[in-house]
Design brief:
With 343 residues, the chain is of the alpha+beta class. It contains eleven helices and ten strands. The strands form two sheets. A seven-stranded mixed beta sheet has the order 1-5-6-10-9-8-7, sandwiched between helices. It has a three-stranded antiparallel beta sheet with strand order 2-4-3. It is elongated, with a radius of gyration of 41 Å. The two termini are 76 Å apart. The model has no long low-confidence stretch (mean pLDDT 90). Bound molecules: phenylalanine. The site of phenylalanine has 11 residues, from strand 8, strand 9 and strand 10. It is found in: Cytoplasm. Keywords: Aminoacyl-tRNA synthetase, ATP-binding, Coiled coil, Cytoplasm, Ligase, Magnesium, Metal-binding, Nucleotide-binding, Protein biosynthesis. It comes from Sphingomonas anseongensis. Pfam families: Phe_tRNA-synt_N, tRNA-synt_2d. Tetramer of two alpha and two beta subunits.
């Protein structure tokens, strides 16, 4: 009977049939299990004669099952390898790829242009002390100029409004103060970053980006400022025929002050392409006010300089032809795919 069982195991057609044989022999009510149980009812002599045979039979069956199982599994694998061919020539599914946001792109372009002019990059905090954002920039407390910018004030939860010591910086100009008070002149730097004003329409968002420029040295004049701005704007818009307009203006921290407009034309959307069907203000600038230089502990008779602040998002709009600033910060993937840059 045992040799017949072994034959059936060796020729089991598949894993299911093999398992059924295993149960019929070694399971709870299997034939070999029954023989093992019968040992208990035998006399000692009988048992010592029978036990080795029964154990040997169990061993043989267990081994035969394991061997057949390995054979059947190997055969199954062979079959799968033969049928499931991997076609390496199939194209891989396309993976969506992100783009560089136009603001990041323009910030990189600006850093590169100014690096060529010998400017380094400085940074400052977005939650700024009022002294850096206003006071040191010649806007003392209660000075009406503080109202020029719609400021977000920071207050501790449950705190006293009189203790509003911090603001979300309204411009990158506080970085002028931070660098002048921490590094010895001469200075030549740009400071890119986010700034905040409570304002929103097609060309204003509550958060936007500026790049500040600051040069502090001896014998710096308005001529240096004009040359620098012209050189930078021509490099940025990648053409020599752009039209610039410098308008006298007022900032508490520069004297004299000038705002710079670039002419745009409809030739290819509202872009800067030479010509001037309209003007777009792109930056504020001027000679650093002697009081600001003195506020930073420098002697204004020895050190002079110029500063400017430019709106990065507007520069991007004018160079790449977008007409709504708000779209910059909506995170709409279709917009990003269209206007973003492949890295
Ligand atoms: N901080 C000014 C603004 O945001 C721009 C500016 C910077 C003007 C530096 C003059 C000099 O409007």
């Amino acid at each position: 009977a045992d040799s017949e069982l072994l034959d059936r195991i060796r020729s089991a057609p598949d894993l299911g049939a093999l398992d059924a044989l295993r149960v019929s022999a070694l399971g709870k009510s299997g034939s070999i299990t029954a023989q093992l149980k019968s040992l208990g009812k035998m006399s000692p002599d009988e048992r010592s004669a029978e036990a080795p045979k029964i154990h040997a039979a169990r061993e043989a069956v267990t081994e035969a099952i394991a061997a057949r199982k390995a054979e059947l599994e190997a055969a199954e694998l062979e079959k799968r390898l033969a049928t499931e061919k991997v076609d390496l020539s199939l194209p891989a599914p396309e993976r969506p790829q992100g783009t560089v946001h136009p603001v990041s792109q323009v910030l990189d372009e600006l850093a590169e242009i100014f690096a060529d002019l010998g400017f380094s990059v400085a940074e400052g905090p977005e939650i700024e002390e009022q002294w850096f954002n206003f006071t040191a920039l010649n806007m003392p407390e209660f000075h009406p100029a503080r109202a020029m910018q719609d400021t977000f004030y920071c207050r501790r939860i449950g705190g006293d409004p009189a203790e509003e010591a911090h603001v979300l910086r309204t411009h990158t100009s506080p970085v002028q103060i931070r660098t002048m008070t921490s590094q010895p002149p001469p200075l030549r730097l740009i400071a890119p970053g986010r700034v905040y004003r409570s304002d929103s329409d097609a060309t204003h968002t509550p958060m936007f980006h500026q790049v500040e420029g600051l040069v502090i040295d001896k014998g710096i004049t308005m001529g240096h400022l004009k040359w620098t701005l012209e050189t930078f704007l021509k490099a940025f818009f990648e053409r020599d025929d752009i039209v610039l307009r410098m308008r006298p203006s007022y900032f508490p921290f520069t004297e004299p002050s000038a705002e710079v407009d670039v002419g745009w034309s409809m030739e290819k959307g509202r872009r800067v392409v030479g010509g001037c069907e309209g003007w777009m203000e792109v930056l504020g600038s001027g000679m650093v006010h002697p009081k600001v230089i003195a506020n930073c502990g420098l002697d204004p008779d020895e050190w002079q300089g110029f500063a400017f602040g430019t709106g990065v998002d507007r520069l991007a709009m004018l160079k790449y032809g977008m007409d709504d600033l708000r779209a910059f910060f909506d995170g709409d993937l279709r917009w990003l795919k269209h206007y973003g840059f492949r890295s």
